[in-house]
Fold each of these.
Amino acid sequence: MIPTGPLIRLGLAIGALDRRPAGELTHLVRVAEDAGFEMVLVAEAWGRDAFVTLGSLASRTERIRLGTGIVNVYSRSPAAIAMAAATLDDLSGGRAVLGLGVSGKAVIEGWHGTPMDRPLRRLRETTEAVRAVVRRDRAGYAGETIRVGPSFALAFHAPRERIPIYHACLTPAAIRQCGEIADGWLPYLLTTDTLRSDLRSIEAGLRAAGRDRAHFTVATFVPALVADDAAAARSRLRHHIAFYVGAMGRFYHEVISRQGHAEAADRVRAEWQAGRRDAAVDAVPDELVDALAVCGPPERCRAKLEELAGAGADIAVVYLPESAERDEAERTLRALGALVSAAP
């Protein structure tokens, strides 16, 4: 029997599926929309452009909200980010969500050739500047790291004067700042205990800004795969976790380490950076996968979704592994949608 408990909403992240044909991505997003998912987030690193992808999805969906998950605050100017977000909001009939983050040094300096200076200040000022542009404020914006000159304004009226902005952040200072200025938080690779603990920093930021938690969204990214064989599902998700710990800079290694898995994180990173990818994947222990992921039979997945809701998550943003076959991806989306729709 499937247990009942707190209701959690669902989102879909398609970053790990970036190598799939565009038509397949569109199909999976439509499956998610039909299954009751309320949001799709498109990541951007060195693959598809997030806004172009979302613009295409806007014409092929009807209800699901369309967001970046995430774009960084260095490779585009705040004005360019605001124009893209406002255009997406216009094309989609007011369904845009803007996920922002600082990304990592390898992407910012290696791929984009831009110095990764003062990331916390840059994220704050980009958020403020984007809001000024979207609301067509002709006063411009002047900060310590960026500037938008006065007298400019968007040449069209977007459906809304304020598009929701979510921050992806991992450090305590960035999480508190997120609570102060953002509309939502996009945590990733957190256990339910850490999510509950880190929400204290969000709440401190909200209090400092005189804001209400009821108007703030916690949309946590969760590696997920529904399968009758829990061990097989766990095995498929190991590569996903190993990639983030081993290849995506220091922040994910640090976040796994501070959650009590420092030894495993060190081994995964060492094996990955030595080019022993299979050994790095094998170094991800079962207990770490179980702590981070929604995987296995529906009953087990439902219990994990309940844990996330109990820890303070409003939306579980499902992150399918790159290795998932099309039928596995569809089955996961439909099964999770059915679990949530059946909640009291």
Note: The longest helix spans residues 250-273.
Amino acid sequence: LRAEIENTNTLNLSLDDCVTMALEKNLDIRIRLIQPEIDEFSLAGARGAYDPSFAFSASQRFNASPGSSDPNSVLFGRGSDTFTERFAPTIDGKLPFGTTYSLGGSLRRQSGTSFTSHQYNSDLSLNLRQPLLKNFMIDGDRQTIAVNKRSLKISELQLRHQLMRTINSVEQSYFELLFRRDNVRVREASLRLAEQLLSDNRRRVELGAMAPLEEKQAESQVAARKSDLLSARASLDTEMNRLKALLSDEFSSWSMAWIEPKDKLLAVVHPFDIQQSWSEGMMARPDLLQSKESLERQDIVLRYRKNQLLPSLDLQLTYGHTGLGTDVGGGLIGIRTGTGQNYSYGLVLRIPFSNKIAKNSYRASRKQKEKLILQHKQLEQQVIIEIDNAVKAARTSYLQIEATREARLYAEAALEAEQKKYLNGKSTSFVVLQLQRDLTAARSNEIRSLADYNKSLSVLWLSEGSTLRRRSLNVEVK
């Protein structure tokens, strides 16, 4: 596309072409696309709480004891020393239902004056801890994962909303560009009429059939029409730049391009059904869906805060095997055969005296939910009003099309009749110029009403959340 833009000064683009370009290159969309990726990384990171970890330790220890005195003699007993080497691997982690586990063992080799030969001690044990009240149904890690899932969904809805807003902006700019292009043509036609009248007046003044004043009036109107045309062209350039910014992530590559819209301003009849629009808005508006997701996310936080009010009651289980021998194989026999067993189980109860932190956190979360409920209700009301206003504006714009068309036809007929009178010497150039201005305004108003109607339909689709559906766009974030 960039090469095409650089190699030509004119781009013939339809509205569909513009929407496609915006979806690929618009900077607002590209910025918004990053957030779901960030939230996906956050979710994946939160799930890492259940990844097991491995630890391994190796140590050496030497212990020397001096000899003790013999009460029956003046001699001291012989001292002793012990040399211990220990190797201990451990795997620990947490399960999704709150259970923490630790599987570990050790192998110790001891030698010294107290041992006739090397002695090997080994053990292997599994430790489990399961919350039964606090942190049973939900804990900090499960809350974080659930909240991050909702945050990811919210960011996807925000992306969907950004796509709709960008498409609406493209549609608004495209229809405005159509109006300003056609308005330039109207101003050019108006200038030609004024110049033709000026030419006729000059010829009549030269023949002495008209006062010089009327020639000056025509010259004044030509200058005014040129000024209007320059303003119209400047407005066209401004709107074209606005559309270019929506379609591209590098404006410099478009700076010399001229966008020529392929579509025309048409008045396609639209069946306005306020009840249907309200119903679709309640189900499809991304901001309303975001609000619902925020409420559900707050429910997760509230459920966690409520769980933290409970006392801590944990079940602890331990089971292990031990071994002893004069070599490594002998030291591990007890672990393999289970001849040296040990186990324990019990409950650990912990009750805080005041629990102020948990209580006040729960109260704050409950108030936050009340706030979100009211904000959601307020948003629903705003959506209903917005859709109602959009439907009424679209209806009015459609009715104005017929009114402005009739006004333009009457203005054309009035000018044509007055020009005939002028040619027969029964009118003045002042009246003809006035009717020319009226016709120019009527033509401009007609295309203005056509553009406004199409723009109002775009606003209605955005208000009821049907922009993507009407363009057959299915947005899925993967």
Note: The first strand starts at residue 10 and ends at 13.
